[in-house]
Specification:
This protein has about 210 residues and is mainly β. It has one domain. Helices cover about 0% and strands about 60% of the residues. The protein contains no helices and 17 strands. A hairpin with a 5-residue loop joins strand 16 and strand 17. The chain starts with a strand and ends with a strand.
């Protein structure tokens, strides 16, 4: 199943929302949109595409109503999530964690375009496995660009078959947080300043 979400934030108006498939979005406050599951997704073989546009002068907070649980499908273990984000105003993205259950594989890609006066905070939290599960795999990539060139190229893999997998001691949870243009002072883990402004904060451990 393919699910598509489009959220457009415009100054002085409620966000415009378009939904199709197993994921829906609801405006819960004038500047806040929550993602809500309308069906069991993502399962193996599913693709979720989320497009977010924040126009200049607009503000948007994007959240989710619950954690995202990734499950294998009957004939396929791999699912995908693709985010396409354009920010000219102020955007804060902080969904509930993604839990990669059983032996499922989940691939996430986030593409961000920022104007020079945009403001952004985006946090991604991932957990491999429910209780006593360690077989899942997650790969997350993030690309952020400014008008003059790249701001960030970042990729993390977790779980079985990842580049850092070790059966005795390996991270099964991570938090990544990108902020622009101000550097984070209260984010989890290690915070690194970016050459183009803002910061990337990362944390890894066994459980969120």
């Amino acid at each position: 199943m393919r699910s598509d979400i489009v959220v457009v934030a415009q100054p002085g108006q409620l966000p415009r929302i378009e939904c199709r498939g197993g994921l829906a979005a609801r405006c819960t406050e004038p500047d806040t949109v929550h993602l809500v599951s309308a069906a069991a997704t993502p399962l193996g073989g599913d693709t979720i595409v989320i497009r977010v546009i924040v126009q200049r002068g607009a503000r948007l907070r994007l959240r989710s109503a619950a954690a995202t649980v990734v499950l294998p499908g009957a004939s396929c273990r791999e699912s995908r999530a693709c985010w396409d984000i354009e920010v000219g105003g102020e955007l804060d993205v902080d969904p509930q964690p993604t839990v990669v259950a059983a032996d499922s594989r989940h691939l996430s890609q986030v593409q961000i375009g920022l104007t020079d006066d945009a403001r952004l905070r985006i946090r991604e939290r991932v957990q491999i496995g429910r209780t006593n599960e360690r077989q899942g795999f997650w790969s997350g990539g993030m690309r952020a660009d400014l008008p003059g060139g790249p701001l960030l190229r970042h990729r993390v893999e977790l779980g079985s078959d990842s580049v850092t997998h070790d059966a005795l001691a390996t991270a099964l949870a991570c938090v990544s947080e990108l902020r622009y243009p101000d550097a984070a002072t209260d984010a989890a883990g290690t915070t690194l300043a970016l050459a183009g402004g803002g910061s990337l904060s990362t944390w890894q451990g066994d459980r969120l």
